[in-house]
Write a structure and sequence with these properties.
It comes from Microbacterium nanhaiense. This is General stress protein. InterPro entries: Split_barrel_FMN-bd, Stress-Dev_Protein, YdaG_split_barrel_FMN-bd. The protein is α+β, with helices and mostly antiparallel strands. The protein has a single domain, classed as Electron Transport, Fmn-binding Protein, Chain A (Pnp Oxidase, Chain A), CATH 2.30.110.10. It contains four helices and seven strands; from the N terminus they run H-E-E-E-H-E-E-H-E-H-E. Strands 1, 2, 3, 4, 5, 6 and 7 form a seven-stranded antiparallel sheet that branches. A hairpin with a 3-residue loop joins strand 4 and strand 5. It is globular. It starts with 5 loop residues before the first helix and ends with a strand.
Length: 160
Amino acid sequence: MTDTTPTQRVAELISDHRIAMLTTRNEEGRLAAHPLTVQESEFDGDLWFLVSKSSTFASDLRHDAHAGISLSSGSSWVSLSGEAQLVEDPAKVHELWSSMDEAWFPQGVDDPDLGLLKFTAESAEYWDSPGGKIAAAFSLVKAKLTGERYQGENETVELP
């Protein structure tokens, strides 16, 4: 196995995740989670999303840029902590745009409500059950039968 940096390990784990939950804090201090589609498959510390500028979480981020991202699959879970901001970058919007995005933005890439959200991760915590769902299920049963603690990979890392 090749040694990987913490950012590379997090990138490996989230590479197949398409849906993320963005957690923001509103003006009343309440936490709220919002599902978003991950727009880039390569993770370098930033995640990009095409979003509605008029969404409640866009308003939340104007009040408090601190946010969290959660991603989950059948065998791995990643929690990112960092800051999110709406940015103006028409070239990046065009780079990320796909015809599937028309479901949310029927006016296309020039929809006036179409915004670009950049999430910059400061830290991550991940849990992984190597081998996928079947191996994870086997390991859980084995732990139950032997009385030994379930062994998965869990790390907290600071990201550059």
